[in-house]
Amino acid sequence: MTRGRPRGGSDSRERILTHARQLFAANGFRGTTVRAVADAAGVDPALVHHFHGTKRDLFLAAIALPVDPGVIVTAALDVPRERLGEAFATVVLGAWEAEHRPALEAAVRSVLVDGDGELVSSFLGQVLIARIAPLVDDPPGSGERRAAWAVTQMAGVLLLRYLRPVRPVCDEPVENVIRAIAPTLQHHLAGPPPPE
Amino acid sequence: MTRGRPRGGSDSRERILTHARQLFAANGFRGTTVRAVADAAGVDPALVHHFHGTKRDLFLAAIALPVDPGVIVTAALDVPRERLGEAFATVVLGAWEAEHRPALEAAVRSVLVDGDGELVSSFLGQVLIARIAPLVDDPPGSGERRAAWAVTQMAGVLLLRYLRPVRPVCDEPVENVIRAIAPTLQHHLAGPPPPE
Q1: What was the ipTM of the complex prediction?
Q2: In sequence order, what DSSP letters do the residues of B31-48 get, joined into one string?
Q3: In chain A, which ranges are continuous DSSP H helix?
Q4: Residue A184 near residue B187 (C-beta atoms within 8 A)
Q5: pLDDT range class, residue B163, cuts 50, 70, 90
Q6: Which residues bind DNA (chains A, B) (predicted)?
């Protein structure tokens, strides 16, 4: 790819995404600026915002997620406290089992299996855990750990059901998966305060 | 590497391991025979057994695990039913936090992140889950699913603590990790029967 004056719009749009993927993978979410992506792509930062919105939007576009997990999870956790685990399991597994599955699988596989670990850390830590934490912060100060332990349970299921399929995790009906992990997610999100 | 007549003993020993890694990664644990490894390495099957014992021993040598997880877990789960979760968490986290950690991390990273997914499936499914299942098979027939769900909780913690470090999972004291997941492991291993 040659640098220099940006050519047509869709060309710039794709070039920005390519460089964003490389920079997010190398430096993580926090360590990457819109200006750095713009510089790498040879465009003005305003053009990055024009095509891709905020840095967060750019990140989601770069890892090609078809849905914003933060938005989905936030909506899902707007339920009575005693149903948090079931709601979290239902929405996450629901997204994976629906039409989004190929795109989600490709995106997570690319960052988890092929990609840079920092990107996973950035995404899970700075986007997902941070988004869940205030919703389950009872008693105050426990939200981040509650969110983190819940994410470990969910990550293990996604790993062994979709990315590295292991029987019987990968061939159980989705309803059984939800019922199996709803109680443990409930424990993490709303059970006794996590150890500190 | 040239084929043909085996040279010295330690040379054959290493060559067997190299081919075993390749075949286990390509065909999984079940799909790989000692004879196939011997053929690939250009040695007699008896020499494979002489150097590396059973197929299972060969597999463990090939992925360079310093401890046999099946043996460790079996020993750990020889506790009263109400302490299964705590025992499982303690022994697995204990192994990862001890002197084995660099070797375990390298082994799991190589099969999970760099290697072939089939190797992970084979190991977790055919070695670990199958080993745990009969120890927690109450009511009869539930053991495999109990073991599998417990492994999802443990796998998520190992992933986010050691392989793709995410705060706060990666920087909590190990005692807190054990206390955080012991109740959810207990639920999977000995709680209400898993959905079927």
Answers
A1: 0.72
A2: T--HHHHHHHHTS-HHHH
A3: 9-27, 34-41, 45-52, 55-62, 69-76, 84-97, 101-109, 117-121, 130-132, 143-158, 174-190
A4: yes
A5: confident
A6: 33-52
- pLDDT score recorded for residue B171: 92
Is a pLDDT exceeding 80 seen at residue B111? no
Residue A120 contacts B, CB cutoff 8 Å: yes
Q: What is the CATH number of the domain that holds A41?
A: 1.10.10.60
Confidence of residue B75 (pLDDT cuts 50, 70, 90): confident
CA distance A167 to chain B (A): 6
pLDDT of the residue at A127? 73
Look at residues B128, B159, B120 and name the one whose alpha carbon lies nearest to residue B144: B128
In angstroms, rounded to a whole number, what is the distance separating the alpha carbons of residues A52 and A54?
Answer: 7
* Residue A11 contacts B where some CB pair is shorter than 8 Å: no
Min distance A41 CA to chain B CA atoms (Å): 28
Residue B93's domain is classified under what CATH number? 1.10.357.10
Would you give the end-to-end CA distance of chain A in angstroms? Answer: 51
* The amino acid at A144: E
Report the distance separating Cα B93 and Cα B169, nearest Å.
12
Q: Are B164 and A184 in contact (CB under 8 A)?
A: no
Counting beta carbons within 10 angstroms of the beta carbon of residue A149, is it exposed (0 to 12), middle (13 to 18) or buried (19 or more)? buried
Residues A113 and A184 in one domain: yes
Residue with tokens 């990862």: B96
